[in-house]
Amino acid sequence: MAKKNSRKDIVAVVGSGGGMSCSYAAGAMVALATEYRFTEPDFLIAGSGSTGTFAYYAAKQYDAITRVWTDTVFTSKFLNRFRFWRILDIDYLIDVIMKRDNAVDMRLVQESPSELLIAATDADSGDLVYFSDKDREDQEEIFELLRASKAMPVAFNKFISIDGHRYCDTELSASLRMHIREAVRRGATKIIAINNVVPRIESSTAMAVWNRFRPKTFRSRYKEQWKELTEYRVPAGVRVELLEPKNGTPVSTIQSTKKSIQKTYAMGYRDMLNHKGIRDLLGIN
User: At 142, which CATH number?
Assistant: First the structure.
């Protein structure tokens, strides 16, 4: 069990995107909660495929994380590589899986002392934006934040309207390093960073082509933020413990089988248990 610090550290847990490879973070987050009993970091920051897991985590619905990732998402209604106009149906994920069949209790999310920050990219300006669950009076709006963060341009082909702006998922809003920077900006002194992503040429190439057809203002701002990202260094005094699959995962952004998703989930769970740095950060012997 995680010990309380004599000095109040601000702890953040951050997770990258990565589509179906985010089953790795799902396993890791369940282990963090059920094995280490660490359930209320100051900040939960995620983008893209990890946002749903982080919402369930904030609500302490750990069984739902396991159920969704190891069973429910494996349906052609959600993922269908032959449905080329909408390979990933994010509307099905949000409206059926996360609202109906395995409903995220947004009341518990908002009552949690952890602030849930959901990353998305403005589809017109290119700005990376972090939305907080605590800023939303209508709990239904949090589902729309999740929808926007998961709205992959190439695989979903739909922008989501939030506060009068259109948002989507990009490699920028899925970036672990961006989330680490945001955690530091908000005062985090200890960060558990879960990286689902290993370099994959096909997804990066598809996004590069999509970016090329965005307006000039979008491309310019997007490029500017990528430059900031590559130059960013974590300041002294901030501890970051990185958890990632050493040899990649058997799934990719849009390619997986039920068995490979379950294996990736188990990898995340096991790697969290075996990570000495995270155990030390949490004060676990």
Answer: 3.40.1090.10
Residue at 6 is within a domain: no
Instruction: Specify the 3-state DSSP secondary structure of 237.
Output: coil
Q: What pLDDT shows up at residue 6?
A: 42
Q: Which residue has the tokens 């413990």?
A: 241
Examine residue 227 and state whether it is found in any structural domain, yes or no: yes
Q: What is the pTM of this model?
A: 0.94
- For 141, other C-beta atoms within 10 Å of its C-beta total 16
Work out the end-to-end distance of the chain between its first and last CA atoms, rounded to an integer number of angstroms. 9
The CA distance from 196 to 26, in Å, is 10
**In this structure, is residue 168 part of a structural domain?**
yes
Buried b (16+ CB within 10 A) or exposed e, 248-273: bbbbbbbbbeeebbbbbbebbbebbe
pLDDT at residue 82 is higher than 70: yes
Element (H, E) at 161: strand 160-162
Cβ burial of 200 (10 Å; 0-12, 13-18, 19+) is middle
The domain total for the chain is 1
* Cβ neighbours of residue 203 closer than 8 Å, sequence gap 6 or more: 19, 154, 252, 253, 254
